[in-house]
Every structure is written in C-alpha cells, then in structure tokens.
Specification:
Blueprint: H1 2-20, H2 31-47, H3 51-55, H4 60-65, H5 68-76, E1 80-92, E2 98-110, E3 118-132, E4 135-139
Antiparallel strand pairs: 1-2, 2-3, 3-4
Amino acid sequence: MKKLTSLLPLILLALTAACASGGGVRTTETAEQTIARRAVERWGLLVEKNTEAAWEYLSPGYRGAHDRENYLTQMSNRPVTWTKAEYKTMECDEAQTSCFVRLMVTFRVRSSLGMVGEVEAQQEIGERWINLEGTWYVLPTD
C-alpha cells in the first residue's frame, strides 16, 4: 500500500497530461468529415435558436463586415422555425480550401392561408465552407 501511495502523484500527473492532450487519442477526421460535422453543428444551433453560438461558425471576414447584434436579431426574427438539418453531399476544390455543402433542412412556417396554420416542409440548401488557418467556416452569400 505504501508503494501505491508514493506512486499516486505520478499516476495523477500522467492522467492530467492524458486529459490535457485529449486523452491521448488522435483524431483521424478527414476534412470532409470535419466540414460535414461543423455544418450540421451550426444548423443544430440554429434549430436550438442559439444564434450567438452559430455566429462563431461564420467566416471571420463575414463577421468583420456585418454587425453581430443585427445578425442575431435578424436570425431570431425569421418567420421560419428550423427543426432539423441533415448532411447530404459535398464538393471540394482540389486544394481542399473551399467546399460546397448540401444539406436537407426541415422547417415549419405559418401558411398565409389562415385555416391551414403551420406547414412543415423540407428544402435542400447549399453552403460554401472555407478553410482559414485550419478551421472551416461557412461563407454566407448575402
């Protein structure tokens, strides 16, 4: 028992180092997997109405050229309620610095026909994602 007690600080140090390095597990995620994951994560945040966190997925250039509070207000006041987004396909340039991602987005919108109420629909959308210093960002078209 005394030996175990004297080894405890070393064990704790090794565990701390392993946790700090992500558990010693290296990611083998491809660029395509990273982009698909980030695109679905971003849409998940929009579904959850967490526009502040979704803002961080926008390219730094877009964020620098647009007012954050205005973006948050616009996104929060849309007449559509997004309910789900699923990754479909992706096409990347040869250098893998830019990719066009297609997602199927499910949403609800109030019909202009009063008696109909809300209508649920799906639409395929496309987004341009760019790699800046190793991080993938969506580049909005507006």
